[in-house]
Amino acid sequence: MHEDFLHFIYKNRLWTKGTELLTDNTPFEIIDTGLHNHDSGPDFFNAKIKIDGIVWVGNVEIHVNASDWHKHHHDGDHAYDNVILHVVYNSDCDITLPNGRTLPTWEISFPQTIFNRYSDFKLNEKPIACADYIDLVDNIHISMWMEKMAVERLEHKSEHISEILNLTNGNWNETLYIVLARNFGFGTNALPFEQLAMHTPLNVMLHNTDNLFTLEAIAFGQAGMLERQPNDEYTKKLADEYHFQQKKYNLTPIPESMWKRSKMHPVNSPETRLAQFAAIMQKFQLLADRILNNRFDRNIFDNLKLSDYWKTHFSLGKLSAKEKETKIGMQTIDKILINTVIPFSYLYGKTTNPNFDSEKTIDMMRSIKAEDNRETRAFAEIGKIACDNALDSQAMLYLKKNYCDAKRCLNCNIGFQIMKEINKI
Known about the structure:
Layout: H1 3-11, E1 28-32, E2 35-36, E3 44-51, E4 54-65, H2 68-71, E5 83-90, E6 105-107, H3 112-123, H4 139-167, H5 172-183, H6 190-199, H7 202-206, H8 212-222, H9 233-249, H10 270-281, H11 284-292, E7 313-315, E8 318-319, H12 330-352, H13 359-366, H14 374-382, H15 390-404, H16 413-424
Helix pairs in contact: 3-16, 4-5, 4-12, 4-15, 5-6, 5-11, 5-12, 8-9, 8-10
């Protein structure tokens, strides 16, 4: 038995009706279960119960065993002096409060079907534990919950951007630069990309936006990839240009050892992403101006290409098996929008505009094609949850990581609806 299950039963009034008897056989009534507390202190604040015709207002504490009160050292903590009801699965002792009063204790009971479903969720090894029961949930509950997940993911991303904004002392351009760089790491190389941006002043890049070759030289040099002996003419020219810029701006590269390459598709190699980042930096000032003036349009990325060298290379000095397109693809642009432009615009709007309407940001997410990855495919196999656009796929990513993988089924509204429906059967 776990406390989180007992919290769920109590909070949602799923206990077996007609069993509201204290351990001394006194009947009682729960008028208001109270406010669920997720921090330190009693589990529910400001509950309201009636015992022997007297209404009590105070806090509720929940344990598996009544003796957990002592194990958790509540008897010496004044934060628990106002507890009016002790809800337990097993009443193995009485609890006496500091005023000498015996704490009213209720040994809660619940339908076995609900506990069986909870156990199945916990022990189920499927990627989506509720897959076999999700047809019990109305579409309206699913769509509302998924939009909430998408917004929570957007909030989470904007919180990270806010932390970077604090590091830059409120400089929005510098913040966008660092966030853009970090997101070119696409998770695996996020840290070295972020460090590269922090080691390379934005002004250095902006002074060279009219020269893609110089931007590449600075990017690869600051990435620590031009320290070794060049093995082709293009790399040698990059190294020469970088060393000139390094001396001019007093630049310090990051260690090349920071970059991860194992088990990586060539198109996602650090070198390919660095070349793309250098190309995007040509449009950085336009990108920043459009976002900060609420006039963003994805067409600023149209016809953005890498240098011709990358037609035949995935990394410096190494030929690719076949010639490839140097235009930055739609999928990469979509990722820039999803991970950088939209959350950055969302935070900027919330921070600077008291009348900010987040719906425009949500609509921008809806206009982008849904992502295709392991997580979205896991939901697709269920067939119940729509994945029509990036808002849907972002919701799936957040739900999978923060609820499904963490087995927080009882905190998920889909899981809750399943539990409610099971209780009706």
